[in-house]
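Input structure tokens:
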């Protein structure tokens, strides 16, 4: 409390607006957490912004389980201005993929995987969590290939597009630094992106067909450098199509080769930020009607591929965490 009393309102935001909001994800709790970080205490406004951005990406399961934040962040930079914090935040966010797949599974393997995950993150450091996440991303490649081998229906819709975000997609958008922005519009596009970058974007077809996300590629002379996921934010939930605007869109992630986060200010980052500014300003004509197309598609109806995928993920988690 003494440390917080020394902070400027300009740096931390008004404490009076935070006191009434309680709980581990409330702003007042976040101020107390920041003050408890020892040599990682935020010192200025930019530091607090980075800390809050990190906490925004940490899954609630980890927020609930973590008691010792200094242990969790051991080995991480002590300077909140370090560019590595964006990658650290994205690695924490990717824990959602493990929990989501466990939630979609059922049976003894699912319950065991959930308990092992919770026990693991309760005492794990960031580097241990990042190792688990990276291993999971590699395992997803094998899981997808194994399911494709026994399920020829995955090929039947590979060129069927979901409704795109951009109305005009006949020619690539070219940023001032020469990089191109390409919308990915079907499973075949996602598979090609996965082949180029080695991350799990090929598994995002279901979310795209459901109308949950839209996907883009940042390229140089046709070579993929990074992929971006765009969604509607919570303020769009329940809104009519007529009331949806670019302000409802958020970039969920921008990932490069092997799932790495492009550095802030890099050519890829600058090209994407140029594109994003055009989206948010309304300069680009966009389509915000993203219907659920899965109900009439052979790859999703009358079969259990999603369940098989979730089951394989739960089994991998059990095997991986049995070794820790």
């Amino acid at each position: 409390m003494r440390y917080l009393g020394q902070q400027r309102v300009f740096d931390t935001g008004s404490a009076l607006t935070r006191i009434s909001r309680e709980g581990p994800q409330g702003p007042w709790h976040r101020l107390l957490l920041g003050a408890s970080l020892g040599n990682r205490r935020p010192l200025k406004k930019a530091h607090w912004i980075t800390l809050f951005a990190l906490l925004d990406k940490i899954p609630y399961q980890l927020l609930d389980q973590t008691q010792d934040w200094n242990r969790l962040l051991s080995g991480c930079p002590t300077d909140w201005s370090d560019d590595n914090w964006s990658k650290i935040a994205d690695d924490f966010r990717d824990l959602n993929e493990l929990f989501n797949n466990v939630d979609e599974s059922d049976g003894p393997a699912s319950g065991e995987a959930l308990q092992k995950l919770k026990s693991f993150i309760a005492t794990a450091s960031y580097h241990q969590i990042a190792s688990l996440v990276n291993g999971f991303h590699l395992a997803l490649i094998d899981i997808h290939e194994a399911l494709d081998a026994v399920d020829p229906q995955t090929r039947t819709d590979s060129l069927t597009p979901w409704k795109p975000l951009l109305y005009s997609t006949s020619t690539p958008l070219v940023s001032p630094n020469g990089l191109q922005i390409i919308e990915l519009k079907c499973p075949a596009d996602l598979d090609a992106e996965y082949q180029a970058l080695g991350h799990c974007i090929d598994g995002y077809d279901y979310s795209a067909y459901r109308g949950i996300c839209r996907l883009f590629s940042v390229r140089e002379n046709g070579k993929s450098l990074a992929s971006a996921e765009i969604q509607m934010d919570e303020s769009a939930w329940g809104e009519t199509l007529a009331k949806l605007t670019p302000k409802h869109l958020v970039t969920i992630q921008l990932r490069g080769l092997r799932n790495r986060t492009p550095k802030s200010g890099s050519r890829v980052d600058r090209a994407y930020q140029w594109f994003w500014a055009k989206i948010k300003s309304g300069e680009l004509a966009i389509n915000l009607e993203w219907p659920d197309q899965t109900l009439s598609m052979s790859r999703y109806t009358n079969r259990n591929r999603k369940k098989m995928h979730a089951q394989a993920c739960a089994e991998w988690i059990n095997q991986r965490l049995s070794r820790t």
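The chain has three domains: 2-70, 94-151+303-324, 173-294. The beta strands are 173-174, 180-184, 213-220, 223-232, 249-255.
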